[in-house]
Amino acid sequence: MTTLVEAPQSAEPPSTRTRSRQRSAAWKRRAPLLPALLFTIAVTQVPFLVTVFYSFQSWNMVRPGSQHFVGFDNYVDVFTDSVFLQALGNTVTLTVVCVFVAMLLGLGLALLLDRTFPGRGIVRTLLITPFLILPAAGALLWKTTMFDPTYGLLNWAFGVEVEWLSNYPLAAVMTQIVWQWTPFMMLLILAGLQAQSREVLEAAQVDGAGRWRTFVSITLPQLSRYLQLAVLLGAIYIVNSFDAIYLMTQGGPGTASTNLPYYIYQRAFEGFDVGQSSAMGVVVVAMTLIVATFALRLMFRAFDVSRGVK
Amino acid sequence: MAQVAYAGASRIYPGAHSVRAVDGLDLCAGDGEFLVLVGPSGSGKSTALRMAAGLEDVDEGTIAIGDRDVTQLPPKDRDIAMVFQSYALYPHMSVRENMAFSLKLRGMSKADVRVKVEEAADLLDLTQYLDRKPKALSGGQRQRVAMGRAIVREPSVFLMDEPLSNLDAKLRVETRANIAALQRRLATTTIYVTHDQVEAMTMGDRVAVLRDGVLQQCASPQELYGTPRNVFVAGFIGSPAMNLLTLPVDGGGVKLGELKVQLPVRAEQGEVTVGIRPESLSPVGAGEDGFDLQVQLVEELGADAYVHGTLAGHADKVVVRTDGRTPPKLGEAIRVAPCDTGEVHVFDPESGLRIGAE
Amino acid sequence: MTARTNRLGRGALTGLTWLVALLFVFPVIWMVVTSFKHEVDAATDPPTFAFTPTLEQFTTILDRGFLPYLANSAFVTGLSTLLVLLLGVPAAYALSLAPVKQTSNALGFFLSTKMLPIVAAIIPLYVISQNLGMLDNVWALIVLYAGMNLPLAVWMMRSFFLEVPTEMIEAARVDGAKLPTVLYRVVLPVVAPGIAATALICVIFAWTEFFYAVNLTAAQAGTVPVFLVGFITSEGLFWAQLSAAALLASLPVMIIGWVAQNHLVRGLSMGAVK
């Protein structure tokens, strides 16, 4: 760069001039990305690779020296383990139902909020509060003050005597999770509603569309990327739900409300079976990856990643 | 003060189909000259300007400012100032800070910066807004801040990229005159990009017309209008556009309807493209020499009216300027003739180039 | 529709909105109410609405050693968020304003790590922490929380960086600014609100994180959620005490979230809203 200034008429062909400049520029551009990339690899990928290694071992943490290679034995055990299959089913049910219900409720609340009325700011503040409550605190509060069979508010309000956590453990856990995540969905959808162009809505009105028609044909399509984002982020967090189950039902009664994170936790930290819980972890990752590839594609389309990439 | 010289300068966007956004540009803006680059969108006019600024690479050829080759220099070492289409004001800085930014970067003392900024603000009528943020200014005021940011630096070249396109029509005309006057006063070499040919004609000492990255013609506004070098320039300069008709040559002339028009130049047998500006045509009485036009649309502008019509037996539209007080009615047939044969332009229909002595 | 019925309809809708909001937030309201009760009024059938308020529960919580947990939470949340910003801001820049060629691959990688279930890594993390003597250590949590929040933060900040007009950066270059000056004096002030929004989201997720905290820490480095776990083992119904603890544990994030609602919305929608 220093000598080039002095030699403007250099006979160097332009193509090589451009290429060498591009090569050094490419590394200069990558430099700011590398620390984050290396850090993420170290904190997430390396432990996962170790998990894969453990999954081929038989190793019980309380019996030192028990560690040895067993090939695919752990995987065979995982797929013949009926509790694992039940936990898998519970995880799917919990994720799908919670995301869907929270989104519907969030949409409803967002629509209620998307107009001007007295106290709108206060109502919004109230509605986001469950998202700001510590999930652990929320779970404990629901377990006691809401669901308790003797003193809980639910039985008092409905005048019934139901043992919610024993009879409907999964539903009870899901109620708490939905309550926690609805504000998140609501905020995202509200952002989408408010980003709508007023002119387009007015155009629909002028074209003779009624409220319902406008909502279905104009608002929903415009909201779709916000809904996708809400589903994706919600699913990422809800699929990993652990606090609610750990604190409300301990996966019980029996294994009725056990999901995969909780089951793997149990195998690892209560059963001390490193090999098997690792194998489960690997299976979960493999399944998540399949779902995630699909979801990522959705995300990339919704957020137009090519934007800003020349 | 300096001239800006492009010598065979090209910008090639790489890719499967590499695009020559600017192709072998040879152009020179003289010292103190106001040079306008004009062309339709995608013609490469902005790219050419950004090459001079150092914001686009020059893949072939060179660019010199004054007697320095700046082809490889970063923008900050080129002694230029640029006004952007969006103004690109720094939203977190006040007007004063916006204008002072480049001076501070050059390490000028605080007192000097203050003097310079206040001088520029005075010149642009911005003194009372110096401590406002861009957000609190109107469109016209923002535009002036962008100008101010350029002039405080006293650069050797101004580069302006469609600086008026975000203003409303009235303000645009006003600002147009202000910028032109300011440039004359500062006598700083200026390259100005616009897609608006009226802006180009009214502001530029010379106007360069670009199309698909290739320079078509660079000349004074009068010359561009009077002797366009090819069909593209002929059609692009002037509003409404010149009427262009491709007709067979018949004994040194062409037939417009029943009117035989003698060509001002010697043409071979075959066809030529004839260009006549709407203002070179006028209605004549029913008995006089001329051709009949079926009126399809009348645009009344007050002083003038433009009549759009079709020539009998011809698909092409012809536009004629008439007196605005007595415009013809829709559906009428009017008789039209060129005012003066000297204002008939002749082009080669194959190459599009002007035929005739220069 | 006449103006009068229209107004009535609007009033009814407002009433409904208020009602729904109050019902929805009722568990929180009840938590606040219960935290001021004596233990005898907390768990009753039917529930007690009239009672003599007391601060007894809060003093009990503080006596039970709540403050060290609170300090741990603040320390871990603050430092992990700082670490996320230190690593994330340059990365977001490299994926937006000066995009590397492999931008979509890098973005995909960041997001895919977010989709890895945390359980898949907890066992090695436990073993590694144990071997390094980092069990029950705040620094282990700081690193893990940074790793947890970094992918989302990079995504969010990238979208804020993309909003910076290219012409403004070019203007600064023409004005004579070198790259560090452009970044520090022009880009950073413009994206600052976006970075704040991102930091806010990181703070919320770090403060509320449960899984790592419960498995990797105990009395020494335990964060606020770990303190709450103490309440599931005590089978007795100390509801008032529990409510007071829950309130104290949630209060910092609640206040931040309330005050910065608009930032929260911007952050969550990844800058898609202006």
From TrEMBL, chain A:
Q: Has UniProt tagged this entry with the keyword Protease? A: no
Disordered: annotated span: 1-24
Q: Which residues form the ABC transmembrane type-1 domain?
A: 88-295
The topology of this chain with respect to the membrane is:
Multi-pass membrane protein
The primary location reported for this protein is membrane
Asked whether the keyword Cell membrane is assigned, the reply is yes
Q: What is this protein called?
A: Sugar ABC transporter permease
Automatic annotation (TrEMBL), chain B:
Name the encoding gene, please. msiK
Lineage, top-rank taxon, reads Bacteria
**Alphabetized InterPro entries for the sequence:** AAA+_ATPase, ABC_transporter-like_ATP-bd, ABC_transporter-like_CS, ABC_transpr_MalK-like, ABC_transpr_MalK/UgpC-like, Mo/tungstate-bd_C_term_dom, NA-bd_OB-fold, OB_MalK-like
Keyword Nuclease appears in the UniProt entry: no
Question: What PANTHER family does the database record attribute to this sequence?
Answer: MALTODEXTRIN IMPORT ATP-BINDING PROTEIN MSMX, OSMOPROTECTIVE COMPOUNDS UPTAKE ATP-BINDING PROTEIN GGTA
Instruction: Tell me the ranges covered by the ABC transporter domain, including all copies.
Output: 4-237
Keyword check for Transmembrane helix, yes or no: no
Annotated GO molecular function terms are:
ATP binding
Listed transmembrane segments: none
Fetch the Gene3D superfamilies from UniProt: 2.40.50.100, Nucleic acid-binding proteins, P-loop containing nucleotide triphosphate hydrolases
Name recorded for this polypeptide:
Diacetylchitobiose ABC transporter ATP-binding protein MsiK
Instruction: Give the record's keywords alphabetically.
Output: ATP-binding, Nucleotide-binding, Transport
Listed PROSITE patterns: ABC_TRANSPORTER_1, ABC_TRANSPORTER_2
TrEMBL record, chain C:
Q: How does the UniProt record describe the way this protein sits in the membrane?
A: Multi-pass membrane protein
Q: Which domain of life is it from?
A: Bacteria
Keywords, in A-Z order: Cell membrane, Membrane, Transmembrane, Transmembrane helix, Transport
Where the record annotates domain ABC transmembrane type-1, the positions are 70-260
Which compartments does it reside in? Answer: Cell membrane
The family note in this entry says: Belongs to the binding-protein-dependent transport system permease family.
Its name, as the record gives it, is Carbohydrate ABC transporter permease
Which lineage ranks, top first, belong to the organism behind this chain?
Bacteria, Bacillati, Actinomycetota, Actinomycetes, Pseudonocardiales
